[in-house]
Specification:
The protein has 331 residues and is mainly β. The protein has a single domain, classed as monomeric porin ompg (Porin, Beta Barrel), CATH 2.40.160. It is 11% helix and 54% strand. The protein has a 12-stranded antiparallel beta barrel with strand order 1-2-3-5-6-9-10-13-14-15-16-17. A two-stranded antiparallel ribbon has the order 7-8. A hairpin with a 2-residue loop joins strand 2 and strand 3.
């Protein structure tokens, strides 16, 4: 942690003392010319950087003003990390988002306006569910994301800065189960506030764009109850890192690959969430992007490579495996 802190602090000092040229995204250059200006680097990063998609989302070094619509599918085959329930789930997600760039700052927001979640339940409170409760589908809204980033140039080809994202637990996901006396009770997925500070690094060389994120994800309660049982929702902290590269062989097309890791930093106690201790999540996200005038279309897959990716995917509501189609309009 000490070395990372030194790197982040040094980047901040260099960024503060470095060039103060404004970020423009109106003249992308996919050539191999070595003498690309800072403005051209900004334009290249804004156009060809990998698409940030849920699980968690990548923070961009140059985030252009834009609107987007996501339609995605996620799946997990193990819900045992949730309190009192086991089984598997799949989810179709629709989200609207937008970003506004103002000088060195970028402000983004995203709202999943429709989740359609299907559960195949194996046990509830260590008992097999009623036949009517084994297979359920529910529609809900998701968690609101709000993000602010600040970046500037360390040199013509390199951009660095900081970002902070908050994810608010606005989701309404719940499922009904029959009790022994025939009455119904509602099981809701745990609510978390996500606090996500990060350092951001980006670069453009030739036809390649590079993005690195290094930071924290802090998940905080509130606590809850289920049928008289008190659920203590602990604060869980992760070191989150993402490493992405994008290659634009044509002006209208690019391909990218992102490796993301999330390592749990603290130990949690109690009966309900101990499966999260010592969690190590590793995911790989290949993607393709197409550009037509002011529009961009992204097709992104995310594959969990470790068991920890399954547990972490539940907390992110992204699943172990996901596929996302994104359509963006740049301004």
């Amino acid at each position: 942690m000490g070395t990372r802190a030194i790197v982040v602090t040094s980047a901040a000092l260099l960024c503060a003392l470095g060039p103060t040229r404004g970020a423009r995204a109106d003249a992308p250059d996919a050539s191999d010319a070595p003498g690309r200006s800072a403005a051209e680097v900004d334009a290249f990063l804004a156009r060809y950087a990998p698409a940030p998609v849920d699980g968690p989302e990548l923070r961009l070094p140059v985030s252009p003003t834009r609107l987007w619509l996501d339609v995605g599918y996620g799946r997990t085959d193990d819900l045992s990390s949730l309190p009192y329930i086991t089984g598997k789930a799949q989810n179709v997600r629709s989200a609207l988002g937008g970003a506004w760039r103002w000088g060195r700052f970028a402000f983004t927001g995203e709202m999943p306006f429709l989740h359609v979640t299907t559960l195949d339940v194996a046990t509830v409170m260590n008992q097999p569910p009623e036949a009517a409760d084994k297979h359920q589908t529910a529609a809900s809204i998701g968690d609101l994301r709000l993000d602010a980033d600040w970046t500037c140039h360390l040199g013509d080809a390199i951009v660095a800065g900081f970002g902070f994202r908050a994810r608010l637990p606005t989701h309404t996901t719940g499922f009904s189960f029959h009790l022994l006396d025939g009455s119904l009770t509602t099981y809701r997925l745990p609510y978390y506030f996500h606090l996500e500070p990060t350092a951001i690094l980006g670069a453009a060389f030739g036809r390649f764009a590079f993005v690195v994120n290094e930071g924290l994800i802090v998940l905080m309660g509130p606590n809850g109850t289920f049928e008289g049982f008190y659920i203590h929702v602990p604060t869980i902290t992760f070191w989150d890192a993402a490493y992405a590269v994008s290659w634009a062989p044509l002006a209208a097309f690019a391909a990218s690959l992102e490796l993301s890791t999330d390592i749990q930093l603290n130990h949690v106690s109690g009966q309900d969430f101990t499966t999260f201790n010592d969690l190590r999540s590793v995911s790989l996200a290949p993607a393709l992007q197409w550009h037509v005038a002011e529009y961009r279309v992204d097709l992104v897959a995310r594959f969990g490579l470790t068991n920890g990716a399954n547990l972490f995917g539940i907390m992110e509501f992204a699943g172990t495996t996901s596929y996302t189609l994104r359509v963006s309009r740049l301004f």
